[in-house]
Amino acid sequence: MGRVVVVPARLKSTRLKEKPLYPIKGKPLIRWVLENLLKCKEKVILATDSQRIKEAVEDLPVEVVLTPRELPSGTDRVYWAIKGKDYSQIINFQGDEIFCYCEDLKRLFDALKESEVATLARKDENFKDPNKVKVVLDSKGYALYFSRSPIPHFRNKISSQYPLIHVGIYAFRYEALKNFVSLKPSELERIEGLEQLRLLENNLKVKVLLTKNLYFGIDTQEDVREVLKWL
């Protein structure tokens, strides 16, 4: 039973037109993502609904799986790409996450030895932006809640641990991923617009690993300008 990193990428996007193909320093965003992942020597699958995205990366040593356009989420796209294949551990790596760190991928895979699902978070003082998802943890490092609101509320003291910004990269055991996509969207998921809450509402524990590495998902023109500073 093997392990794999799957990158979901759909052509249609709401805030940045045809985001996977958007040029960053003359190169499509999706190529930045895949080329950085390939440095980690993991098996990589691109799960996309677009022939144009496939053509933009077909010279790379990446397996491309064309998925239906009507799939409801990136996680569903990931499961579609690997169902029936011999993978026991799967990382869902966002198609707009331009930075990649091999040590964090390894830590996520290692976490699946003890947990069904694992993800990342990093300390960030700029936590009032609702586009930055916050997470709070229990005493063993499992997620208690994810929110677009600033959590926790600092009423009495400043914390050395919080606030934590969630990095939307997930590691799943195969059965946990299969279970997740079979579940209906949950109440809190619909309220917050965060599909990871479906896991918590259905008693699936999520291990959260802390990282100091910079992650920066791209959703807007402003994000593009910001990431160019780092590149």
Instruction: State the helical fraction.
Output: 25-40%
Report the CATH topology name.
Answer: Spore Coat Polysaccharide Biosynthesis Protein SpsA, Chain A
Order of helices and strands: EEEHEHEHEHEEEEHHHEH
CATH class: Alpha Beta
Question: Alpha-carbon distance between the termini?
Answer: 36 Å
The profile of the biggest β sheet is:
7 strands, mixed
Strand arrangement, major sheet: 5-4-1-6-10-7-11
Compact overview of the structure:
The chain is α/β, with parallel strands linked by helices and 231 residues long. The protein has helices spanning 29-38, 51-57, 74-82, 102-111, 174-182, 187-192, 196-201, 221-230; strands spanning 2-9, 23-24, 27-28, 44-48, 63-66, 87-92, 117-123, 134-137, 143-147, 164-173, 206-210.
